[in-house]
Amino acid sequence: MKNILVFCLMISLSAVTTAQEAPVSQASNEVKKKTTAVSEKLETSEFMVLGNCGMCEKIIEKAALSAGAATAEWDVKADLLKVTFNAKKTSTDAIQKAVALAGYDNAGYKADDAAYNKLHGCCKYDRTGAAGGAKSCTDSSQH
Ligand SMILES: [Cu+2]
Questions:
Q1: pLDDT at site 22
Q2: Domain layout of the chain by residue ranges
Q3: 51-80 pLDDT, tens digit each
């Protein structure tokens, strides 16, 4: 009789141990799956976008994000926009179009004159010059 009790106790103990281990290993598998999925889907693209200052940066990045980019980082010194995006949701082409619609010439599209003219005076970048040309903004905080 005592042996049976010990046996039952052992079974219930091992059952508890199994129950505790199972959810932990499942959870870590799930995290791994998600990470893989994200890194598989996101593409990175880097292209020229003309602009002058921090205000331009906000508009350019907002336009890229609104076009479906997951992240957007514009470098004011290099006139380069770096974006990551899900290729199923958007494309470099679509992001470049959106940035041009916001008033900024880029590697893919030239901005509409009307959109360019709506920009803050300080943000009216040099459209004739090459990337990295003269910046007319001296203090981006004045915006
Ligand atoms: Cu600006």
A1: 47
A2: 42-133
A3: 999 999 999 999 999 999 999 999 999 999
Residues near ligand 1 ion, CB 5 Å cutoff: 52-53, 55-56, 123
52 CA → ligand 1 middle, Å? 5
Whole-number Å distance between alpha carbons of 143 and 50: 18
Tokens of 120: 């803050």
pLDDT of residue 143: 44
14 membership: H or E segment, kind and range: helix 2-41
Name the architecture of domain 42-133: 2-Layer Sandwich (3.30)
Q: Tell me the CA–centroid distance for residue 46 and ligand 1, in Å.
A: 20
Query: pLDDT, tens digit, for every residue of 77-120?
Result: 999 999 999 999 999 999 999 999 999 999 999 998 999 999 99
Tokens of 75: 């470098």
- Gap from CA of 132 to ligand 1 centroid (Å): 14
Q: How far is the CA of 137 from the centre of ligand 1 (A)?
A: 7
